[in-house]
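Q: I'm teaching a short session on how sequence maps to structure, and I want students to see two examples side by side rather than one. Could you give me a first protein with its sequence written out and its structure tokens following it? Keep the formatting plain so it prints cleanly on a handout.
A: Of course. Example one:
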Amino acid sequence: RANNLKIVSITLARGGSQEVPRKNIKSLNGKPLIYYVLSSIKSAGINERWVSTDDQEIADISNSFGANILMRPPEMALNTSKCEEALRHFSNNVDFDVMAFVQTTSPMIKPDYIKQGIEMMRSGYDSVFTAYKEHWAPRWSLEVDPIGWETHKRPRRQQVRENYVENGSFYMTTREAFKKTGVRYSGKIGVVEMPFSESFQVDSYDDFSLIERLMK
């Protein structure tokens, strides 16, 4: 694929967040949460950064960090709204070849991972996402039944294949693939592997204080 792909980023930041009110602009080490991903995206070389929001204050703050704003209809910013709806709204309103959907909740995302994703998209992947490798650990259902193993034949960790676990930092996909499927990953899918220690998402007050400590 040519190097002249138009790559833009999109970050979804609605005003109503359930667990932590106004999470997207809550202060983390003295900066609004959304600042961190916007600044990583910029350092990764994506010049056109977009924020899709239903909230004027979030729009103003994001704009002060150089992001373009797409105001999204309130019915696409409910607790029940799926990201895909907002991404569809974005793809109907903004021109791109590749959309890098970077989530506000990943303030620790390094520009290098975003660059790696861009390189993969340039080399012919239709979609990529970030994940960490998980070693096998015995999992149990809430009814206390072992999931996928037996108590009298507990495997050794080394015997079980590792898996990728999505960490939600970012997803990239081409306009064609998204148009065809309406979902964030399809076609030839690649993984940008990140360490578990950098895979934390900020979703609760506990996460905020944990990540503040980790980032210091």
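Q: Perfect. Now a second example for contrast.
A: Example two:
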Amino acid sequence: MSSASHPYDAVVDDDPSVCRSVVRLLRAAGMQPITYDSAEAFLADTQHPRFDSVVLDVQLGGMSGIELGRLLAKAQVPVIYVTAHDDPETRASAQSTGCAAFFRKTDSGADLLAAIRRLTA
């Protein structure tokens, strides 16, 4: 795992604008984000270190964020879901994976950052 002073965090989202904004937020906070545009791309990456957290979109093309979240829960990797599709069923599915937090894409970046910091403290 990375040092607490420079945590590595994955951002898995198929929306490039969301990836850019989350990356800017995390870099400004001294973190080292690495982005992926799909669950499959994330799973195929063998070159990066273990992640301190994964910021994960619920709806992705191919494997869903919920499916990836279930795999990550087995590996004890903390997941924070971010979605544009917040409804009770989606939220319940995400929470059933044992996620660390669940946000809408319109929620405050400060709230997302606070959740990530709690995981890497």
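Q: What should students look for in example two?
A: Point them to this: The CA atoms of residues 88 and 94 lie 10 Å apart. Also worth mentioning: Confidence is low (pLDDT under 50) at residues 1-5.
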